[in-house]
Amino acid sequence: TSLGLMVAVVVAVGLCRSLARRRLHARPRFCSFVLELLSTFQVCACTNELSVLGSTEPRPHIALTLTYGFTVLHGLTLPGSTCNPCGTLQPLWGGRSSVRVGGMKIGAQFAAAVLARVFMHFVWRLEMVESHSGALAQGCGNPMQTTVVQAFCIELLFSVVFQLTILQVENIKPSYRVHAVALLITMLVFAGGNLTGAIFNPALAFSLHPNCFYDRFFTYSLVYWIAPCLGKFLTLHLF
């Protein structure tokens, strides 16, 4: 049921993206906003459902396999979208995008994060799967299972490694690139998922753990917003 739900989200988003391209081609900025909104919604909604499946036995094999598979699926079905505020900073830094366009994309990503969380809560209330009732009742899941300093360093390091890899594989054939990126994300989740969740995406982190940001805003913004963005800037500075 959970897999069917995620596939349905991917199909629905694909249809909406195709419709947006046809109807909004005369308004490129608004079209870019809508495409980024839809793409980030897909990533956040599917990852919210994947987090529910994280405790499925055998652990962590099922979770890692699904992480790899859906990361590949996102890469193949969402070309041209970053779905990550950190990725939107790169063209701003290089002068290839205006602050207005970049701000619109980041706004779309955080709006999609909220919409995905609201949508998943609605789906979880239907209790199609037994684990949905537990997910609905859960407040802050406290993804940080280590000190704040260590969590900050882990998210910073993972962000640097991820962004460096993205820059290195830009010229690889897209069908190979999505597998390389998916393999890297899966490895990072395996290495640090039990400590911080290995998210390194501010919008996705906000969608997965909104209650944590509400309870301890400074701590979680430091680890899940500032650390990934700082990692992006360090990567761009190195290049």
SSE map:
Layout: H1 2-23, H2 28-52, H3 61-77, H4 85-93, H5 99-125, H6 130-137, H7 148-168, H8 174-192, H9 202-208, H10 210-215, H11 217-238
Describe this entry's structure for a reader.
It is a single chain. By secondary structure, the chain is mostly helical. The chain has a single domain (2-238), classed as Glycerol uptake facilitator protein (Up-down Bundle), CATH 1.20.1080.10. It has helices at residues 2-23, 28-52, 61-77, 85-93, 99-125, 130-137, 148-168, 174-192, 202-208, 210-215, 217-238. Helix 3 runs antiparallel to helix 8. The longest helix has 27 residues, at 99-125.
Question: Tags for this entry?
Answer:
about 240 residues; Glycerol uptake facilitator protein; mainly alpha
Backbone structural class: mainly alpha
**Main sheet record:** none
Report the principal-axis shape: globular
Provide the succession of SSEs.
Answer: HHHHHHHHHHH
Helix content: over 70%
Please give the domain count: 1
The appropriate CATH architecture is Up-down Bundle
Poorly predicted parts:
none
Give the full name of the CATH homologous superfamily. Glycerol uptake facilitator protein
CATH topology: Glycerol uptake facilitator protein
Portion in beta strands: under 5%
Organism: Odontophorus gujanensis
Keywords: Membrane, Signal, Transmembrane, Transmembrane helix
Protein name: AQP11 protein
Signal peptide: 1-20
